[in-house]
Write a structure and sequence with these properties.
Radius of gyration: 27 Å
Shape: globular
Bound molecules: adenosine-5'-diphosphate
Low-confidence stretches: none
CATH class of the largest domain: Alpha Beta
Number of helices: 31
CATH topology of the largest domain: Rossmann fold
Strand content: 5-15%
CATH architecture of the largest domain: 3-Layer(aba) Sandwich
Largest sheet: 8 strands, mixed
Oligomer: single chain
Distance between the termini: 61 Å
Length: 741
Amino acid sequence: DVSDVPAVPEWLPDHLRADGIDSLYPPQAAAVEAGVTEGDSLVASIPTASGKTLIATLAMLAAARNGGKALYIVPLRALASEKKAEFEQFEQYGVSVGVSTGNYDSDGEWLAEKDIVVATSEKVDSLVRNGAPWLDRLDCVVADEVHLVDDPNRGPTLEVTLAKLRSRNPALQVVALSATIGNAGELAEWLDAELVDSSWRPIDLRKGVHYGQALHFDDGTQEELRVQSSEKPTAAIVRDTLRDTTEDGEVVEEGGSALVFVNSRRNAEAAARRLANVTSGELDGDELAALDEIAEEIRGVSDAETSDDLADAVAKGAAFHHAGLAPRHRELVEDAFRDRLVKCVCATPTLAAGVNTPSRRVVVRDWRRYSGDAGGMKPLSVLEVHQMMGRAGRPGMDPYGEAVLLANSHDELDELFERYVWADPEPVRSKLAAEPAMRTHLLATIASGFADSRDSLREFLEGTLYAAQTDEQGRLDRVMDDMLAYLRVNDFIEETDSGRLQATALGHTVSRLYLDPMSAATIIDGLRDADDPSALGLYHLVCRTPDMYQLYLRSGEREEFTMEAYEREGELPGDTPSEFEESRFDDWLSALKTAMLLEDWASETDEDRITDRYGVGPGDIRGKVDTAEWLLGAAESLAGELGLGSAVGVREAKKRVQYGVREELIDLAGVRNVGRKRARRLFEAGVETRSELRNAEKPVVLAALKGRRRTAETVLENAGHRDPDMDGVTPDPDAAPADDE
Ligand code: ADP
């Protein structure tokens, strides 16, 4: 019973009961038994939706009751505000909550006053780097989704952050929440923590695969779907889920709901649009009215196209859900799904862990996703697929949850059973030994003054999961020494007369910029080599760094890009490697292909043309653009730091990528809500700069924005127009540029 939990605030049991939580789930009870409310560290490895958050909440509230302070580390920015909102329910009892996701270069002093702080691991890492003093006063730190230490990109940051927090404060309580993994015991050992490793779920789960118009489940049963002609499998499954029928085809009242996982934001949006045609047929008048209201609210959240697309889907009972949504959008979608108004949500796997939206059925439509580094499609891990599947089954509403993958052939049916349904999740392995991670974190550790000698570095590394997992003697030393030598050669660290290691001014900048030191070294070399590099040259330069995932060359493209490489050799900083150095030359070409994609984007080429030309998805363009923008920003800082003349050119190249526009539109596209297409249309209508927009004739602007009044008003307002009101304004027909969309 919830009143038997020791050491928590006395208001808590009543609060939980009011929330429908009368007794603890077995893994939660085990966590309390293990001392989680009494300051003991814990690793809880339990299935999705089995109440991990409450375990952390109990620990944090127990700490807060004694005047202590807790830190909750989330893996994604998008989850931070969600968790904060969840913990804010305790503010009525005097527990204060703060969230920190923003700038990487402040010490977040205002957070010192909060009882509970929510932050991403990158943010905590940077707080440590910036020496936030309140971190030493922490009593409890929660690591949500700790199995992500396995992630090659972000895992080492989480791992190192936990190690740093623990080494500053050996009495710190660590509560690590993990999906079910193969080696939870190892994590517990690393963190000197108790272990709760359970497969208990609040509701049964049947896993299976869809093939040939039937669902095949792991208990051996099959369920035929009635399929309408030419209907795709996902649509058929969703239809079947919504309209529960008895043996004789009678429709049963209580319909289910479906969560569909796809591999990109764009696909989530497309799937929602398509599945809305399925859900719309299942709505009654009351539901339609309620959905209309929600759709209106969604439209009001922002003027972005996403708002409209989402609202259109929601009005028909479907929705998409991905990290690109505004927090308010996500909230509205999740609430509407829980209220069973929205019947089907299409989501990206990134958020599988975060979507707190149980559903009758889960469809894992795409079990491969675009992978930055392999250029092609990569299968999801068992862990990820199980996490998605774990969202099936609404406690108290469904007899059990059902989760299926989709197979296209009989062979694939067998393969998917082997690969995912029967398979156990992978063990989690530290990725810290990878050179980029080691370089980055060693520099950060030295720059933040955390360690100032080989010995103290060594001692710190001993506290990482990597050290706990590696059994190869001497390997840690070897990797460390190689990396220290690299940092020294590149002038990022130096040894003082007394033999202490310290970061140089340049090293501090690199660490603050959050760059892989090798990326910084590449960029510095390139900028020193070229006085006035072209945009393509700069794009190529940042595409050569290990912080950019390059596009792969498809067969036949080698010749094409070899020609381009010679044609544009003069623009590329540094020397073209010899064709005989095959792998370096291929890297060079891959970087060129990636750089040309960026150049096309920054020349206002249509997204569709770019996806065709480079054989990529729209999400890839976004990914490259975001990374390039960040790297060019870093290049700008480095050029400034070193007093190189190219800083201005770098800045311009960055703006062009950021907005996806040619030079002449940079100013205009910088106005919020304008964007590349609208900027071009305004430009063609004679409104060429931000200040011209501020003083523009309203009919001209309205015509250029295709008569969309709300958009025109917002844009004018953002430009600082004195009277953006469009009431009664009619578009000027002469000012409307030719339709280009
Ligand atoms: P996880 O973090 O493990 O994925 P959550 O913490 O989101 O799962 O919990 C899933 C749902 O279960 C939440 O809606 C939560 O309110 C509910 N829940 C958690 N613990 C209990 C409990 N002891 N009794 C009833 N419901 C619970």
